[in-house]
Amino acid sequence: MDDLYREIILDHYRNPRNKGTLEHPTHTFQDDNPLCGDRIRMDLKVNGTGVIEQVRFDGEGCAISQASASMLTEMVLGKSLEEAKAIRKEDILEALGIQLGPVRIKCALLSLKVLKGALYGLRGAADDEE
Amino acid sequence: MLDSYTIRQDFPILHQSINGKPLIYLDSAASSQKPLAVIQAMDEYYRSYHANVHRGIYQLSEKATEAYEAARRKVARFVNARSWREIIFTRNATEAINLVAYAWGRRNITARDKILVTEMEHHANLVPWQQLVAETGARLAYIPLDEHYCCDIAAYEAMLDERVKLVAITQMSNVLGTIVPVREFVTRAHAVGALVLLDGAQGVPHLPTDVQFLDVDFLAASGHKMLGPTGSGFLYGKRHLLEEMPPFLTGGEMIRRVTWEGAEWNELPHKFEAGTPAIAEAIGLGFAVDYLSRLGMENVRQHEVELTRYALEQLGQVEGIRIYGPQHVDMRGGAIAFNMDNLHAHDVAAILDREGIAIRAGHHCAMPLHQKMGVTATARASFYVYNEPAEIDRLVEALDMVRRLFER
Question: CB of B221 within 8 A of CB of B273?
Fold first, then answer.
């Protein structure tokens, strides 16, 4: 019907990829956006050579937040920690392929914030990324 | 019902398209739109008689002072205050409540006292009291809602004792639409010696409000929710209480005399209006009150009863919808919170926006209430004098579209 809910977003929202949690993640982080109630947790399993070999996200929230988390898990799977750290907000917005206003952009970027929190193991580092 | 066709001619903003669709504005509980009379009154002030008030010894200032004080008298009449001295202009209801929390609360609340609020308060009538009890060691207790989202009067009665010093309640919930039986609350509070602050941010724009009949001790309201400009609002307080209270903000305007050693406070209401006030906004609020008075608040209420009844009927037929709040229109106003199946309210609101329909989505500044309701967010449609049944039909059609989009 319109750009904001293009088919790829609806598809990731209806059929999220890599949804769930990991039993023994090497990296994990959770954050929420209390103003709208979006919540995302991300679990990673990084192997001895520093490659992300498993990833899961869990959470609830609007279609934009959940679809972006689903897409992000596909982006990081098989990447090295350094490559994953290099993912920028522009990459997420490009994958979503939509223009977002100042309110909804927080929904779209929550998953990236959570990923960075997991990768750096620090809340402060994650916040600085914004 | 009111003649909404004629009324809509007075609101220039309504005559536009959003995303190629005629605008349907259903967010008046957040902020109402403004009639031309209000916009023109403010424009006229800036174009032809802007000057500071109360001190200028020249025509412009005298005219500005007259207009500013005339607005105060209009507001006093609108809520039936005994005197214009009982009306203090503030930026909004939030500032009015903070004024009471600081000026009255910090002088009168001690560690052994209790303050009661309902479970459905807006943060504006909750956080100031949480701050006050944190500072004083007093206790804050919550009057529960029953299964119909109405205040449980029996539970309220059981909570009242001589330690309760203040009951701070909303006149109408901004989420549930629930109308509080204010008189019943006031009678019982006064019986144990407690004062009552009424948060009229939602009530005053939509219900006839008579402070003498209700016998509330304080009433707070926001101008921008009652057809007035942003930055306008007021506090009503019983005169003897206001006389005893120290100032909230200090500086110019609020003093009678200043010496090297100290200051004497000005008389009411100026004691509480430090600095140059929002003059244009107060004048605009006065014209908004004129507009509402011309329509008649009984008629405004009746119009919204009809709209709300129709909306509850029609929305109730949307598949997968859950509506929160009382089902009977006698017990509620025209703010209707709802959710669609598992959809987040933001998604609902974003798709309605594509259809030109403006609703609110989120926690509506009532996070504890949403926690009680078991949801993080709700969508909310709210009505005012310029809304008409055809707009509710469009809302229902758009919600059906939302459901179909996510169902595929």
Answer: no
Helices (H), B271-388: 279-295, 297-315, 345-354, 367-373
Contacts of A108 in chain B (CB under 8 A): none
Which pLDDT tens digit goes with each residue over B350-367? 999 999 999 999 999 999
Which value, in Å, is the radius of gyration of the alpha carbons in chain B?
22
Chain-chain contact of A1 with B406 (C-beta, under 8 angstroms): no
B24 forms beta bridges with B357
pLDDT at B406: 86
Q: What average pLDDT does the segment B136-150 reach?
A: 96
Whether residue B362 lies within 8 A of chain A, CB to CB, comes out as: yes
B346 touching chain A per CB within 8 A: yes
pLDDT of residue A2: 55
**d(Cα B285, Cα A92) in Å, to the nearest integer?**
46
User: Which of the four pLDDT bands, split at 50, 70 and 90, describes residue A4?
Assistant: confident
CA angle, B360 as apex, B355 and B361 as ends, to 5°?
Answer: 100
Catalytic annotation present for B365: yes
Smallest CA–CA distance, residue A57 to chain B, in Å, is: 18
Tell me which amino acid residue B1 is: M
Per DSSP, what are the bridge partners of residue B115?
A: B140, B166
Q: How far apart are CA B405 and CA B348, in angstroms?
A: 10
B370: three-class secondary structure by DSSP: helix
Residues of A in contact with B362 (CB under 8 A): 35-36
**Which pLDDT score, from 0 to 100, does residue A130 have?**
43
Assess whether pLDDT exceeds 70 at residue B162: yes
Residue ranges of the alpha helices (H) in A1-130? 7-14, 63-76, 81-85, 89-96, 104-120, 123-129
- Phi, psi torsion values for B87, nearest 5 degrees: -110, 120
- Of the CA atoms within 13 Å of residue A105, those in its CB half-sphere come to 9
Mean pLDDT value across chain B = 96
Q: Do A61 and B344 touch (CB under 8 A)?
A: yes
- Helices then strands, counting H and E runs in chain B, come out as 16, 17
B347 contacts A37? CB cut-off 8 A: no
Q: Choose from A2-6, B64-68, B257-261 the range with maximum mean pLDDT.
A: B64-68
**AA identity, residue B302:** Q
Per residue in A90-130, pLDDT (tens digit) is 999 999 998 888 888 999 999 999 999 999 985 433 444 44
Residue B362 to chain A, least CA–CA distance (Å): 6
Which tokens is B393 given? 């039909």
CA distances from B317 to A34, B310, B323 (A): 31, 11, 11
ipTM above 0.95, yes or no: no
